[in-house]
Design goal:
single chain; Jelly Rolls; Tachylectin-2, Chain A; binds beta-D-fructofuranose
Length: about 525
């Protein structure tokens, strides 16, 4: 009764506005309050409703972290892309903002980046009130449907009120299509080596680097990667940034390239290259493929421009194109990873990417030392907690074979195995609840751990209703995956699979509150 009244109300209100879309069934029929639906993450970012994929336009300006994202406001599957928008001042809570960018005559608004044009190089703002500029790919569906190859071009839009309202640049596109079918996902950053703007663009099987003095006129400078790295699928969503070793002053550059398919555990994943960049050309002599995250569900992740302390802050899309459109949620689809800080550290002579949760998340539970848990060979202990599905779990791993299982009263379980003999960790979600919506979802996923220390390895695990993020050795190895249990996990079973008694030091479970108030 109440619902049909709401439906009628919405219909009357929306029906009377020109150009507004008809309310979808879903707006009226949900009984569960927003952000309390089954599987809804409680402390990760999700849109109120409908389909979301890649994070876009990650930019910090005047105390605010902006998160734009690929968004289709009409359905819970991919469709005509818009840029949704949310902001945060603490990387914990998010405020939903109106949709920033809408498709226009040049096409859907695909992924891209945002900068603040502090020096007003574009002339679109002023030095006193610099423009926030979004640089994105236009995808012209009519062109694709007509079998053409030139339907992806690059456009810009600008905001003079800190991202609240946006104007499309009148002369779009700023880069036309050179006859390359997959030509997209511009990442723009201020390049201190050239004192100009750089743009990374992916072009099917390689990266292109372009340069500009004003964000409007662009010139191609170099290419990378036709014969390097993983090529199991199309290259997408590039990013490039540097780290300087404090001790030696040596600068190294890290290039991110998302690929779909071709990730180590199937479907989509993000590889990285360590190398050098002279301001125009990136080179790398890296031989082995490296991955930002070995789990199945961290894709299209990129980093923020203009962070206040210069830190390299990353957010990824917590899904996989293999099954992203089939996951068992109804009102919204998919979440972002926790914001993560990236760094580059030497591991046995190899510059290695580390990702740790943003400081507010890392610090959770630090006031509690936890307890040491000793388990005899082949035995297990079970800890009960009502909050497991929404918690941070910390302990120090002694380096011997073990497993952790999150279990509920239906005996659904999510298992994590740490297996030094085979030098791998794995996530087994095959019996974790709803798993049949896509056949690959049940496959056990693995990540290598051969280069971790042999003992005293800090392990941090975040569980948030339908996601698990595992950080090994302060982020040296990371795995992120979704799962859909039918009932809250309330038991953590830790099993010693090694031949000797072990002690896992500092075990603690820290419950995490929902970040969503009355939405
Ligand atoms: C990556 C991606 C991008 C593209 C966007 C479209 O997930 O395929 O390459 O710009 O999604 O939504």
């Amino acid at each position: 009764m109440r619902n049909s009244a709401i439906f009628l109300f919405l219909f009357l209100v929306l029906g009377s506005c020109k150009n507004s879309s008809t309310p979808t069934e879903s707006m009226a029929t949900y009984e569960t309050p927003l952000y309390q639906e089954p599987h809804r993450p409680q402390y990760h970012f999700t849109p109120r409703e409908k389909w979301m994929n890649d994070p876009n336009g990650l930019v910090y300006y005047k105390g605010v972290y902006h998160l734009f994202y690929q968004y289709y406001p009409e359905d819970i599957v991919w469709g005509p892309m818009h840029w949704g928008h949310a902001t945060s001042t603490d990387l914990v809570h998010w405020e939903h903002k109106p949709i920033a960018l809408f498709p226009d005559q040049h096409g859907y608004i695909f992924s891209g980046s945002a900068v603040v044009d502090f020096e007003n190089t574009s002339g679109l703002g002023t030095k006193e009130n610099p423009a926030m500029i979004a640089i994105f790919t236009y995808h012209l569906m009519e062109g694709e449907k007509a079998g053409k190859t030139d339907y992806q071009t690059q456009g810009i839009a600008y905001s003079l009120d800190g991202g609240d309202s946006w104007e499309m640049y009148a002369e779009n596109p700023v880069i036309g299509n050179p006859g390359i079918k997959d030509f997209r996902d511009p990442k723009v950053f201020w390049n201190e080596k050239t004192n100009a703007w750089s743009m990374l663009l992916v072009a099917g099987d390689h990266l292109q680097i372009w340069g500009s003095n004003n964000l409007i006129d662009w010139e191609k400078q170099s290419e990378f990667g036709k014969n390097q790295g993983a090529h199991g699928g199309v290259w997408e969503c590039p990013d490039l940034f540097s780290f300087t070793d404090q001790a030696t002053g040596t600068e190294k550059w890290v290039l991110f390239i998302s690929i779909n398919p071709g990730a180590p555990n199937g479907g989509s994943g993000t590889q990285y290259f360590v190398g050098d960049f002279d301001g125009k050309t990136f080179v790398s002599d890296q031989k082995e493929d490296q991955w930002v995250d070995w789990g199945t569900d961290n894709y299209a992740g990129v980093t923020y421009n203009h962070t206040p302390d210069g830190s390299r802050l990353f957010i990824g899309w917590m899904s996989n194109w293999l099954y992203a459109q089939n996951t068992p949620t109804e009102r919204w689809r998919s979440a972002m990873t926790l914001p993560r800080i990236l760094s580059l550290k030497d591991v046995q002579g190899v510059p290695t990417l580390f990702s740790t949760p943003a400081p507010a998340w890392n610090a959770l539970g630090n006031d509690n030392e936890g307890k040491d848990v000793s388990i005899a060979a082949g035995q297990s202990v079970v800890t009960y907690s009502e909050d497991l599905n929404q918690s941070k779990i910390d302990f120090i791993w002694d380096g011997s074979a073990m497993s952790l299982s999150f279990v509920n009263q239906k005996q659904e379980h999510l298992n994590i195995h740490l297996d030094p003999e085979n030098q791998q960790m794995s996530i087994d979600r095959s019996a974790s609840g709803l798993v049949d919506f896509q056949e690959d979802f049940k496959t056990i996923q693995t990540g290598p751990i051969g280069d971790l220390p042999h003992t005293d390895i800090p392990v941090t695990i975040f569980l948030d209703q339908s996601s698990v993020e595992i950080f090994m050795n302060n982020g040296q190895k990371v795995m992120t995956a979704q799962f859909f249990n039918n009932l809250t996990f309330n038991q953590l079973k830790i099993e010693n699979k090694g031949p000797e008694k072990c002690t896992y030091k500092g075990l603690k479970i820290t419950p995490i509150q929902s970040i969503w108030g009355a939405e």
